[in-house]
Design goal:
Blueprint lengths: L1 H13 L10 E3 L1 E2 L2 E2 L8 E3 L5 E3 L7 E6 L6 H19 L2 E7 L3 H11 L5 E3 L4 H5 L3 E4 L2 E4 L2 E5 L5 E6 L6 H14 L2
Parallel strand pairs: 6-7, 7-8
Antiparallel strand pairs: 1-12, 2-3, 4-5, 6-11, 9-10, 11-12
Helix pairs in contact: 1-2, 2-5
């Protein structure tokens, strides 16, 4: 069963690279969450065992991206793309966190291997993926759907990205951040 779980997660993460999934679409809502609504609070451990909360980002934009599984094709592409753009995102006033159902140990190994300079949060009990409406399963294997939330400095959802293309999502967020900051 564990092998099947890993295989399914690997296939789900590789699909965007193979062109099976469409590019990210901006959405106004996901499973009951809507743009303009207060983002659900969270408290999760990162790859170093430090507790991270949503309130810790108050006053700054937060890019919160959910991904299916550490060490898989699309998920590695996505973490490396956010890693490569993290300085641009920080300069734009945004912090980045990645969230999956993997545990702290897996995140620590993943972050070390790919030199990830931002928190990877372990949602091992699925509570945050459930609150954000991204928890799904296939044949009994649970994972987080690849979805990104841009949360504004007041803790409200500013943008929701579904069907995320792991190579393009960071760029889309940067473009939207610039537009949001330029708006009156």
């Amino acid at each position: 069963m564990r092998r099947l779980s890993r295989l399914l997660a690997w296939i789900l993460c590789l699909a965007p690279i193979a062109g099976i999934v469409t590019p990210a679409l901006a959405a106004d809502s996901v499973a009951g969450l809507q743009v303009g609504q207060k983002a659900p609070a969270f408290r999760l451990e990162d790859q170093s065992g430090k507790w991270v909360t949503q309130s810790g980002f108050h006053g700054h934009y937060l890019v919160m991206y959910f991904y299916p599984k550490d060490f898989t094709g699309g998920c590695t592409t996505e973490v490396c793309t956010f890693r490569d753009d993290v300085l641009k995102l920080r300069k734009a006033g945004a912090s980045v966190v990645g969230v999956s159902l993997d545990d702290v140990k897996s995140h620590a190994e993943f972050a070390a291997k790919y030199h990830v300079p931002f928190p990877l949060l372990a949602d091992s009990d699925h509570s945050v993926a459930t609150a954000y409406g991204v928890l799904t399963s296939d044949n009994g294997v649970h994972y987080a759907k690849r979805t990104t939330f841009l949360i504004d400095p007041q803790g409200r959802i500013a943008k929701i990205y579904v069907d995320v293309d792991p190579e393009k999502n960071a760029g889309q967020v940067l473009t939207d951040l610039a537009a949001l900051k330029a708006a009156p």
